[in-house]
Amino acid sequence: MAESSTLNATVTPIDGGITAAKGFTSAALHSGIKVKTGALDLTVIASEKPVATAGLFTLNLVQAAPVILSKEHLERSSGLSRAIVVNSGCANACTGTQGFADAKTMVGEVATSLGCPVEQVLVASTGVIGVNLNMSKVAPGIRAAVSQLARGKGSETARAIMTTDPFPKECAVRVETAAGSFIVGGTAKGSGMIEPNMATMIGLLTTDAQVSPTVLRRALEESARDTFNAITVDGECSTNDTLFAMASGASGVVIDEGNYQALLEGLLTVSRQLAVDIVRGGEGATKVIRITVENARSGDDARQVARTIANSPLVKTAVHGADPNWGRIVAAAGRSGVKFDPNQATVHVGGVRLFENGLPHDDKAPLAAEHMKGTDVDIHVDLGTGGGSKAVIWTCDLSAEYVRINGEYRT
Amino acid sequence: MAESSTLNATVTPIDGGITAAKGFTSAALHSGIKVKTGALDLTVIASEKPVATAGLFTLNLVQAAPVILSKEHLERSSGLSRAIVVNSGCANACTGTQGFADAKTMVGEVATSLGCPVEQVLVASTGVIGVNLNMSKVAPGIRAAVSQLARGKGSETARAIMTTDPFPKECAVRVETAAGSFIVGGTAKGSGMIEPNMATMIGLLTTDAQVSPTVLRRALEESARDTFNAITVDGECSTNDTLFAMASGASGVVIDEGNYQALLEGLLTVSRQLAVDIVRGGEGATKVIRITVENARSGDDARQVARTIANSPLVKTAVHGADPNWGRIVAAAGRSGVKFDPNQATVHVGGVRLFENGLPHDDKAPLAAEHMKGTDVDIHVDLGTGGGSKAVIWTCDLSAEYVRINGEYRT
Known about the structure:
The structure is a homodimer.
Chain A: E1 9-14, E2 24-29, E3 42-57, H1 65-76, E4 80-90, H2 96-114, E5 121-128, H3 135-147, H4 154-160, E6 169-177, E7 180-189, E8 198-199, E9 202-207, H5 213-225, E10 231-232, E11 242-247, H6 260-280, E12 288-296, H7 299-310, H8 313-320, H9 326-334, E13 346-349, E14 352-356, E15 359-360, H10 365-372, E16 376-382, E17 389-396, H11 400-407
Parallel strand pairs in A: 4-5, 9-11, 10-17, 12-16
Antiparallel strand pairs in A: 1-6, 2-3, 3-4, 3-11, 5-8, 6-7, 7-9, 12-17, 13-14, 13-16, 14-15
Helix pairs in contact in A: 1-2, 2-3, 5-6, 7-9
């Protein structure tokens, strides 16, 4: 997480989401991709003019057509975009040349309606893999959405990007600095995969701070590392994961070296809430687990240990059963590939010391078990290497419901 | 798997297990580590004289006392051992200096009873982590076991190393070569973790072939790579994993370059059956999944892709539900870190082609679903890189029963 020592800014939560920042409008509607009548499945987010935009995408080798096209457009437009179009219900992944043509048609419809070059439009899709979009429904849907763009429709956008997420996710903050105040807001969707073959995470952020595409990208990367890239539901990186940030500049607050930290803190605050909400809404999740690893030799080491613990099915099932099973935590850290001396390490669960000097403190397990019966579980590992690096990863427990959701017979 | 093209030997299954090979005796009894009256929890395997012995151990940084001691003894004895003592019910892991002293007492009791140097005795433990052995029960148990050593008690040894494995695992083969015939036999225990905090895999192999410790170690490493190291139940590498092989030489068949392949094939055949049986008895498992990855640039690449698919909770739950969800297989391969072109890759399930040229063949999914309703599921991925490397990994499905077993409240 960001050091707030150099932060000369106040971050305050406010109402709203993706259109909380000045200069952005959105619209959402039911185009017919989702079968359920009236279910929102299409949204457009637009700015009044081309604005600084950054994108982060899945590292999966198998990338959906909208991911490939958006990367290309961000490059061609030098990070200046007018709009993002997102559909849910169909991931447009593993759809071949037809899928790529469909993604092009989607951005083309937005560009024509807005009267801007196609490369100023980005696209993201989420839903079933291996199925083509029904463009006879999507294309007119896009034209209708652009005609309805307005402020104050952020919560509709938050619902339109959901697949089987149990709840919509949006969040906004006001950042007050010496140079004035600006807003950061956003929305995200996660990992409700009740309908199999879904492709997952989409995050959309806006701000009315004034910032160059290069600095916006740097801030987005830095904030995503400790938020969207610090969560895991089941260790599966999808074909469609996409995170966009747009900066309108409408607040008049210019981001320079002096208040870069203020922008970063705004992005971090919004992203952290959205990311943890994705975990809370994870498939079959009943608990959010916060895993902190301290005193590692490097940040990468700390993240690797935290991630190995977070993806351990034995740890996740133990948390599900409120079992303070420190042995599984120690064993997961031990197989993470990071060098440390187990005899110097300590493990706390809910602030209760369970392992130290290579030996258990099982007498305190009932106290830790009490903590684990809640919905937010805290696991803390001190690697005792003498290095000062730290990482935090959020995950959820592994429940029988996860198996049910993902094992349901599809064909 | 081994190329059989250069193999001038016939491998035939025979009855028996760890004492099928000439020159080995064993005994097993209830010492009192396990609470259940009469449950076998201690076994000693002995040879008549010091014989070539090789060991492979967990790569987990957190290693149980018996693992550390056995590694030390193999080095000090230059790979010449008389006996192995194994207990179940207690892993003697995370037990500090007392645990190391207890492991030393265990080998000391065997050495005194047999009249051999301590470094000629190896030890393995499996069971609960973080609990000390009750040496007032274990020590007399060991003395009694040594006094009862005999041929034909292999199946008792197979039962004595079980924790909550659903069935004992043993296997033996006769290898006939131009130089005569020899026997390879063994036993193993796996991953029944109904009692939480277990530390898992133990494999014990014997042969009456005559081979040096160095060549035995090479053959053990080579055979384990494609058998014991090619299985995964839940991606968790334990603190106690141990594989031992002893070679008595009692058959008189000398292993040289000419019949190294015969020894290897014997070890492979026995190890493969034991390893796949561990998967079949995996926690909550209802199906064994065989994942073959072909046409990779290297064996490491092939193994990495196969392992990523094998550990994917989405693939494992899909198999549990008999859902031929090729999208999850493709996405797992894509995030494995291995470079390949998805448009050149193909995916077959049960011999049915589901993905090719970047596009699905969902019309054939019902055929694949039929195959997946059985207990043995075949997943085949051709990476299409032009490289000729291949790997096979076995895993099991992920069921709600796995969550129940590992989520049961311990304290």
